[in-house]
Amino acid sequence: MLAPPAIREKLVLANESAILSPATFAQMLISEYLSICDWKAQIESYRKLYREKRDAASEALAQYLPKVSSTKPEGGFFLWLTLPQGLNSKEMLPLAVTELVAYTPGTAFFGDGRGKENIRVCFSHPTAENVRVGIQRLSNVINRQIELTNTFGVQ
Predict the structure, then answer these.
(1) pLDDT tens-place string over residues 33-52
(2) Which of 31, 37, 24 is nearest to 1 (CA)?
(3) Sheet containing 78-82: which strands, arranged edge to edge?
(4) 52 within 8 A of 65, measured Cβ to Cβ
(5) pLDDT digits (tens, 9 = 90+) for 69-103
(6) Strand ranges (DSSP E) for the chain?
(7) How many other CB atoms sit within 10 Å of the CB of residue 29?
(8) 10's torsion region: left (phi>0), alpha (psi -120 to 50) or beta?
């Protein structure tokens, strides 16, 4: 693992306490790969790929869901959305699935019931174009719920 020495030492200790005998052959394979492959260039190509997908998601959110605030992460594979007041991400999930899009409701990340106004969107697997399509589909659900909330009042 590449990590600052202080972090690496703690991770080694944690690993040793969890795994009594690490797989030597696997370690040898990884060591050989790191010695002969341009893994730094590979990391940069993945960064570029995921940056394009993140930007596609952010652009689609600005276009289709301007009333929804979102993060723009510097790393990782997820966007965190905050819905307008009165919307419930957990209750909307079945509606999203009927639009052929899925997400993780924010309530999955809290143990105390919070997060109903949040959504975690993953952009790592689909192509940038499919990320846009997914955000557009999600916008159909969210915008429909915003209209219903505006018509019938906040839940």
Answers:
(1) 999 999 999 999 999 999 99
(2) 31
(3) 69-70, 78-82, 118-122, 104-105
(4) no
(5) 999 899 899 999 999 999 999 999 999 999 999 99
(6) 69-70, 78-82, 104-105, 118-122
(7) 11
(8) alpha
Instruction: State the chain's maximal CA–CA distance in angstroms.
Output: 64
Half-sphere exposure of 84 (CA within 13 A, CB side): 18
Beta bridge partners of residue 120, listed in sequence order: 80, 104
Helix (H, G, I), strand (E, B) or coil at 119: strand
Give the span between the Cα atoms of 75 and 153, in whole angstroms. 37
Its pTM stands at 0.77
Which two structure tokens, joined as six digits, stand for 60?
Answer: 């689609």
What type of residue sits at position 29?
A: L
